[in-house]
Amino acid sequence: MEHRFSAVFFLGTLLVLVMIDNYLIVNLML
Questions:
Q1: Is 1 helix (H, G, I), strand (E, B) or coil?
Q2: Hey, is 30 helix, strand or coil?
Q3: Residues 7, 23: Cα–Cα separation, whole Å
Q4: Is the dihedral of CA 13, 16, 20, 26 positive or negative?
Q5: Element (H, E) at 28
Q6: Which residues cross the membrane (predicted)?
Q7: pTM, two decimal places
Q8: What per-residue confidence (pLDDT) applies to 2?
Q9: Residues of the chain scoring pLDDT < 70
Q10: DSSP 12
């Protein structure tokens, strides 16, 4: 259970970083 939570947390953090990266790229292009 602990391992699963760690994996979900890692994926969530990765998703947030990708979203922030895309947001910055869009702002720079505009």
A1: coil
A2: coil
A3: 24
A4: positive
A5: helix 2-29
A6: 7-26
A7: 0.61
A8: 78
A9: 1
A10: H
